[in-house]
């Protein structure tokens, strides 16, 4: 997975880059190979932070944004949580896209009756 981290109007440290990279890596079990992640951390107003996360690849694009008045880490955590919900929902949809065969539905109907 290709991960790109961009900072806008925010001083950054190598430890924060490592923290962000680790958070994005935690999404890997839910993703397919060959996807790219772009995380943008910026300052919102005088004291707030905004983290935007975009995952793209294989005809899918996911986008999540979270803001925090406390810290950059809280903003990244919020964006990762939103992204995790989106990706998990999409994976469940893909996994359950086939309908139950008719003979199995008929057997369930007979059992219920």
Can you put this structure into words, describing what you see?
This protein has 113 residues and is α+β, with helices and mostly antiparallel strands. The chain has a single domain, classed as Ribosome hibernation promotion factor-like (Double Stranded RNA Binding Domain, 2-Layer Sandwich). Helices cover 42% and strands 31% of the residues. It has a 4-stranded mixed β-sheet with strand order 1-2-3-4, covered by helices on one side. Strand 3 (48-57) and strand 4 form a beta hairpin. Helix 1 packs parallel to helix 2 (72-95). The model has no long low-confidence stretch (mean pLDDT 83).
Mean pLDDT rating:
83
Number of self-contained structural domains: 1
* Rg computed from alpha carbons, rounded to a whole number of angstroms: 19 Å
Oligomer: single chain
Structure annotation, total helices: 3
The CATH architecture designation is: 2-Layer Sandwich
Question: CATH topology, what is it called?
Answer: Double Stranded RNA Binding Domain
Which CATH class is shown? Alpha Beta
Beta-strand residue fraction: 25-35%
**Major β-sheet, in short?**
4 strands, mixed
CATH superfamily: Ribosome hibernation promotion factor-like
Indicate the structural class.
alpha+beta
Task: Please mark out the parts with pLDDT under 50 across 5 or more consecutive residues, or reply none.
Answer: none
Q: Enumerate the strands of the largest sheet in spatial order, edge to edge or round the barrel.
A: 1-2-3-4
Instruction: Report the span from N to C terminus.
Output: 50 Å
Which geometry do the CA atoms define? elongated
